[in-house]
Amino acid sequence: MKARIFALALTALGMPAWAQAPVPAAPTYTVATTTIADLLDKPALKAIFVKYLPNIANNERINEGRALTLPDLVQYVPDQVTPDKLAAIDMELKALPPQ
Questions:
Q1: What is the model's pLDDT at position 28?
Q2: Which residue did the predictor score with more confidence, 57 or 17?
Q3: Is residue 2 part of a domain?
Q4: How far apart, in whole angstroms, are the C-alpha atoms of residue 64 and residue 31?
Q5: Nearest 10 degrees: CA dihedral of 52, 31, 73, 60?
Q6: Is 69 in contact with 34 (CB distance < 8 Å)?
Q7: How many domains would you assign to the chain?
Q8: What is the DSSP letter of 20?
Q9: Contact 11, 81 (CB under 8 A)
Q10: Is 37 contained in some domain?
Q11: With helix as H, strand as E and coil as C, how does 35-88 read?
Q12: How far apart are CA 88 and CA 79, in angstroms?
């Protein structure tokens, strides 16, 4: 009974911050986890993609790889998706505010 009264009181007064469920954080983007689909569909991410890999980002067949990540593309275009470019893209992705 006391627990029910307490729950009703919290409902009426509003729950304190410590009792509220945490709000999930917005995703952080990284080269390792961000898919080509996100890189194409989110304008801020696409700008980075095009900046470093314009030939790939604008390729007519890029939509075939929407489920892949940039490291997955290395096997197909190792001369374009280099470690230096991946590091630069990763740095810019991580610097973006949550989207």
A1: 86
A2: 57
A3: no
A4: 18
A5: -50
A6: yes
A7: 1
A8: S
A9: no
A10: yes
A11: EHHHHHHCHHHHHHHHHHCHHHHCCCCHHHHCCCEHHHHCCCCCCCCCHHHHHH
A12: 16
Collect all residues with Cβ–Cβ distance below 8 Å to 38 and sequence separation of at least 6.
29, 45
| φ, ψ dihedrals at 73, nearest 5° | -80, -15
Q: What is the tens place of the pLDDT at every residue in 39-80?
A: 999 999 999 999 999 999 999 999 999 999 999 999 999 999
Token pair 């990284």 in the structure block, residue: 30
Tokens 């030939």 sit at which residue?
55
Tens of pLDDT, residues 20-37: 666 656 668 999 999 999
- Does residue 14 lie within any of the structural domains? no
pTM: 0.73
Rounded-to-integer distance, Cα 70 and Cα 81, Å = 7
Encoded amino acid at 66, one letter: R
Q: Cβ distance 66 to 35 under 8 Å? A: yes
Q: Which domain holds residue 44?
A: 27-95
